[in-house]
Design goal:
- The protein is mainly alpha-helical.
- About 70% of the residues lie in helices and about 0% in strands.
- It has 4 helices and no strands.
- The chain is flat and about 50 Å long.
């Protein structure tokens, strides 16, 4: 088992996998001159590395988190990674409305982790 905490390892791996997946889905928006078939092939390569992180993240993470908790973490991480990607790479500022919507989704995640 890797050296990182069993609670932190899946989170770190999910962050890494989301960086690859967000890149696979959106990198080409700055390169509209690249043919669509090339974009698809390049994105498949990126998605392969995303799977190489996401699948073990879920396998390791299921030792300490439920499947619903892992999925919820993945969704919140996706929003955070996308927000950074959008601002830094795509140069599209995050609006208050988008930030508020993302925050509401993240707030919903509290219910998945809260013991009622």
């Amino acid at each position: 088992m890797p050296a990182l905490s069993p609670y932190l390892l899946p989170i770190a791996m999910l962050v890494g996998s989301n960086v690859f997946m967000t890149t696979a889905w959106y990198w080409h928006l700055r390169f509209k001159e690249v043919p669509l078939l090339s974009v698809i092939l390049i994105s498949w390569v990126l998605a392969f590395f995303e799977y190489c992180l996401a699948v073990p993240a879920n396998r390791y993470g299921n030792a300490v988190y439920s499947a619903a908790q892992l999925k919820t973490m993945q969704e919140v991480i996706t929003l955070l990674v996308f927000a950074v990607f959008s601002i830094v790479y795509l140069k599209e500022p995050l609006t208050w409305a988008q930030g508020g919507g993302f925050a509401l989704i993240a707030a919903g995640a509290v219910f998945v982790f809260h013991k009622f």
